[in-house]
Write a structure and sequence with these properties.
CATH class of the largest domain: Mainly Beta
Number of domains: 2
Strand content: 35-45%
Strand order of the largest sheet: 3-2-1-4-5-6
Order of helices and strands: EHEHEEHEEHEEEEEEHEEEEEEH
Number of strands: 18
Number of helices: 6
Helix content: 10-25%
Amino acid sequence: MKIALAVNPLAPAAIAIGRTVVAALRSRADLVLSEDTDRALGGPGLPTRPIEALDAEVLVSVGGDGSFLWSLLRTSMPLLPINAGTVGFLAEVDGRDAAAVGEALDRLVGGRYVVEGRMKLACEGPDGALPDATNEIVVHTSQVAKMRLFEIGVDGHPVGRIRADGILLATPTGSTSYSLSALGPIVEPTLEAIVVTALAPFQTTQRAVVVDPLRTVSVRLVRPEKDGVVVIDGQSETRIPGGTTLRAYRSPRRASFVRFGLGFYEQLRGKRILPWSEEAPPDPSDGADLPPPA
């Protein structure tokens, strides 16, 4: 089996886990490293490629959500995300648990996994196509603490205008990321939809709209003299002139994740974002034989 490895070269925890992955896999798989990973690990003597040129059955990515999204902007390989960050919403494996990492690598080499496809958003700015988004596309003001007037459209028809710091278009995968901070809904990541959320809207209730994935959603900077910035997954930033429009729609390309069967709600356990208590329910028999209060 051919496996690629990319670690966050700036995170000591990711580098340490990367060394563990190399030690566990180098005699069991055809292992190739990204160039940044090879330098971070001190040159372990394995084949290297730029991450864009890596060609393997699976890419093991070690870091936080930013590292995973950075990889997904550059490759279409199925991703096994091992968390070495703080939250790791996208992670399948907790890198702090050595036994869990070892078990995940055993299952990977043994082919005991599934590949889960998730919707991406394609987008086009005034100068052409921008990178696909796994989490979200954000169109926001290019000046700190300055609002913009945005016009939202669906399938080429304007549906409303709003003054806000920005407009966020999220995939279901991204619904637990920036969109959640803007009070957007939590959407199961295997669904397909476009979540439209305003960032700090002025004089309006903070609400999000969930749009059919077959629609095209547009965001126009209404005032020609007021430009903005488009940010893809927090990784790619492009300035766009005022008066121009960004269009987003379901991408024909998909993000692929290696999964071992852990459910979405189990992955969110302990992250304190679900709208209900995660504590075990009380025993229904507790107090059942007591008389009612007087």
